[in-house]
TrEMBL record:
Source organism of this protein record: Pseudonocardia dioxanivorans (strain ATCC 55486 / DSM 44775 / JCM 13855 / CB1190)
GO MF annotation terms: metal ion binding
The protein's name: Mycothiol-dependent maleylpyruvate isomerase metal-binding domain-containing protein
Ranges for domain Mycothiol-dependent maleylpyruvate isomerase metal-binding: 28-134
Signal peptide start and end residues: none
Amino acid sequence: MDHTDHMRQSIDLAVSVIGGTPVERYGDPSPCAEFTVREVVNHIAFGLVLAQRSATREPWDESWKIEDGAPFLIGVPESEWAARCAEEGEATARAWAEPGVWDGDSHMGGSPMPAAVIGQMMTSEFAVHAWDVAAATGRDLDVPAALGEAVLEGILAVAPMGREGGWFGAEVPVRPDAPAFERAVGASGRDPGWTRG
C-alpha cells in the first residue's frame, strides 16, 4: 500500500463519518479545540478543496476564506452537506491518484510546498478530523493499521509547526504500545479517550 491508497482511505473515512452523522448532531461539541461537529465537517470540506487544488496545481481563489465556509457548501442546506462532501471527496481522491501528482512542488492555499508534504499532511488531516466527528457523536473509527502508521508519521512531521501556529494543542500522553492512530490522535493534542462531558 502506498501514499495514494492512504489518501484515498483517509478521505473515505472522513466522507463515511460525515455521511453517518445526523444533521441534528451538528451543534454538538467535538474534541477539536472548541469546534462543533458542524465546524469540523466544514473544516474537512474546506480541506478537500485545498487538497484537490494542490493536486491539480490549480490556482487558489484568494476570495475563499474558511470562516465563510467551504466554497461548495455555501448556500447549501446542511441536509445536503454529506452528499456534497462525498462528491468532492471522490474528486480529490482521483486527483491525488494521477501519475506524478506526488512529485515536485505544488501549493497549499497559495503557499508553495512539496506535493508529497501536502499529501502526507492532508492524509493525516482527513483521518484525524474523521475521528473528531466520530468521537463527538459517540462512534468508534476503524482505522487500518497501515493507515494509522501513515497518519502518525504525518502528524509528527507537522506537530511542532502546529503547536507554534496554535492549531495543535499540547501533546496528550498515550501509552507507547498504543496503536499508531491512537498515538497520532494524542500527538495532535487530542485525548484519544475523549467523550462528551
